[in-house]
Amino acid sequence: MAVARLTARSGFLARAAGTARTSPSPLQNPMSQVSRAIRATGLTPRPVSFSTSTSYSCASKPTSAPTTDPKSEPQTDAADHTDRYAAGLRLNKEWAAQTARDHPELFPTLASGQKPQILWIGCSDSRCPETTFLGLHPGDVFVHRNIANVMHPGDLSSSAVIEYAVQYLRVNHVVVCGHTACGGVAAAMGNKNLGILDPWLLPLRQLRERNLELLSSMTADEAAMKLAELNVREGLNVVKQKGVVLNAIQERGLQLHGLIYDVGSGVLSELDTQDSEEVIRARLTAFQTE
């Protein structure tokens, strides 16, 4: 058995060594309670739009030397429209003015405080801006993001965010969201030394090892997608161990959700993460004392 497991592990890691590509996953349609609740705000969801102002090109064949004087080529500086920081400052003024016209009550309301309905735990990936792809507004979502949306049980940062959001902001929903083509997941598929990322990704690599038999039966792409889903479920398990979360579930019906965001389509899919009644009862009574 040990030899067979070692063989499976070796084959799996060999397939996982390449960059994982995204493949569709048979997940549930997210138009369920969480999606309806997300949109049950006092503001009209704004449409999601995508900019295609930046383009990239690749020469059809290599060139040995530039055909023009480099000094005559246009230079990019902080004022150039291709500089994302400079463009962001300019677009911010346009966005603020337009938002104030469309929703004159929004900024004065936000200035008086926040009352988000959702705590969102997601990945730091720049392609996964939750408020944008949910079509919501500032003030709707309280957010914690990190590399590969990994939930360390003893992590002070995520624990503080969860407690503040659940106990003081009294959010109605806690979401753990992974995504396709996740670089952190791809890194965790192998054992390459990644410096400071090694201890951070350790729970994800341990999750891979615990599910090695399942993942070894898949292609590298399928295994990466499955590991992303397993990571969401594991993250929810960590959230469910927080006393403040258990109390909120029991006292006011706090709901937990697991999602996967497809960066290739912009679509969210909801995982089936509901526990049985027996598991829920056992979890709720675990910390109770006589």
TrEMBL record:
Gene3D superfamilies assigned: Carbonic anhydrase
Query: Which residue ranges have biased composition labelled Basic and acidic residues?
Result: 70-80
Q: Biased-composition ranges for Polar residues? A: 20-35
Q: Which reaction does it catalyse?
A: hydrogencarbonate + H(+) = CO2 + H2O
Listed GO CC annotations: cytoplasm
Keywords of the record, alphabetical order, are: Lyase, Metal-binding, Zinc
Instruction: Name the enzyme's class.
Output: lyase
Q: Which Pfam families match?
A: Pro_CA
Q: How is the cofactor bound?
A: Binds 1 zinc ion per subunit.
Q: Which residues bind Zn(2+)?
A: C123, D125, H179, C182
- This protein's source sits in the domain of life called Eukaryota
Q: Where is the composition biased (Low complexity)?
A: 49-60
Keyword Zinc assigned to the entry: answer is: yes
Q: Name one GO biological process term.
A: cellular response to oxidative stress
Q: Its Gene Ontology molecular function terms?
A: carbonate dehydratase activity; zinc ion binding
Record's function text: Reversible hydration of carbon dioxide.
The similarity annotation says: Belongs to the beta-class carbonic anhydrase family.
The entry's protein name is Carbonic anhydrase
